[in-house]
Amino acid sequence: MRLTRVRVPALGEDLPDTRLVLTGPEVRHLSVMRLRPGDALLVFDGRGREARAELLALDGLRAELRLVEELPGTPETPQPVTLAVALLKGDKLADVVRAATELGAARIQLLVTQHADVRDIGANKLVRLNRIAAEASKQSRRAVTPEVLAPVPLGAFRWEGQAYVAHPYVHDLLTDHLHWDSPVTLLTGPEGGFSEAEMDGLTGRGAQGVVLGSRILRAETAPVALLGAIVATGV
Amino acid sequence: MRLTRVRVPALGEDLPDTRLVLTGPEVRHLSVMRLRPGDALLVFDGRGREARAELLALDGLRAELRLVEELPGTPETPQPVTLAVALLKGDKLADVVRAATELGAARIQLLVTQHADVRDIGANKLVRLNRIAAEASKQSRRAVTPEVLAPVPLGAFRWEGQAYVAHPYVHDLLTDHLHWDSPVTLLTGPEGGFSEAEMDGLTGRGAQGVVLGSRILRAETAPVALLGAIVATGV
């Protein structure tokens, strides 16, 4: 069974047997996962360090943990982050692929959507986007190169775990919901946005709408803003 | 005197006389600001709503507030956010200005830095960047157009309030420090990054180093990631 993974404040120098008290959304998450005293879990500090821990006590507002041992930190996100992005005109996809690679996307899935001016991309262009991802990995000194996957219709796209879609009419924040217990998918639309039917379809299939400020973002800005939020809030 | 402003979870329907309990970093901030029971403060929910509140009780770990009345929400950040960005080659500044406008920057200050390939920009280019900001405001339906200010040497740039600089050797997160009690400045470097001497100068003058993931970001990605983090975490 995969261990539950929660974010903790900075891990100190003396790890084994250190006790930590958590409050806030991570505690709610432990309750939802039905963890009990004595259960093992993983903690990470969003600063590159990770440790095994044991749950000592849990009520609705606070959790007490004992740190057991440090694990080798990984420069990748604790769960893979997929960017599912609509086909965009011109060279905008190249810009998105470059930034998404630097910002830690594990995979970039191209989507065919209703409002897109572009319905398909040629095999050459897909090869080129994958080459751009490889170059961006190298330049950003990243060990992993995200694969850019050939476009699929939005309705046929399936994800595992959590999915988030920038939505103009909700008030939920990405950081209200995001946790690292399952893979994460970020969906962003084409120049004209997702259609209302597409948005209904996505939320009906469990994607969580999230607000991204009060302005209309260009199609190429939204993915960078969402991935930027993930790196700047610490994973 | 300007009222202290803190972030709260979502504000509900019945505002007046609702009581709220806060935990976490906002409580520390109230302690640092030396607020006492009976003091007035402002709260905002990061979802566009704002209210006046009264502090009822405060200890090291929790604060209790009473909501007094809702204030008209504003689509701008509670304090102005200045993006101070190094001169960049080619059309990269135009891309940064466009994205920064959509993501709510109040002002864009250009900087001359040690590693920059570009030492100055002509008057025409500055006019063009301001025109790009005006167009981006319109397209993103933003009421405010950020001014793009002529380059100043980094050493001569003065800021008011908080300043954050992406730093490769720290483990602090933007979201560990950012609060909305004073103006915010985000500093990002040129292609080669800030020099060690420049970084020492900035942190010596009080700028807080923050980590932005474990990869090397291009000069044009870092400002979008930082501003994206601010909109996606809710202001």
UniProtKB/TrEMBL annotation, chains A, B:
Annotated compartments: Cytoplasm
One GO cellular component term noted in the UniProt record for this chain: cytoplasm
Keyword ATP-binding among record annotations: no
EC assignment: 2.1.1.193
One example GO MF annotation: rRNA (uridine-N3-)-methyltransferase activity
Annotated ranges, domain Ribosomal RNA small subunit methyltransferase E methyltransferase: 76-230
Catalytic reaction(s) noted: uridine(1498) in 16S rRNA + S-adenosyl-L-methionine = N(3)-methyluridine(1498) in 16S rRNA + S-adenosyl-L-homocysteine + H(+)
GO BP: rRNA base methylation
Keyword Methyltransferase among record annotations: yes
Gene3D superfamilies linked to this entry: 3.40.1280.10
Signal peptide segment: none
Broadest EC class assigned to this enzyme: transferase
Record domain Ribosomal RNA small subunit methyltransferase E PUA-like: where: 22-67
Superkingdom of the organism of origin: Bacteria
Job description of the protein: Specifically methylates the N3 position of the uracil ring of uridine 1498 (m3U1498) in 16S rRNA. Acts on the fully assembled 30S ribosomal subunit.
Family: Belongs to the RNA methyltransferase RsmE family.
Name the record gives this protein: Ribosomal RNA small subunit methyltransferase E
Species, as recorded: Deinococcus radiophilus
Lineage: Bacteria, Thermotogati, Deinococcota, Deinococci, Deinococcales
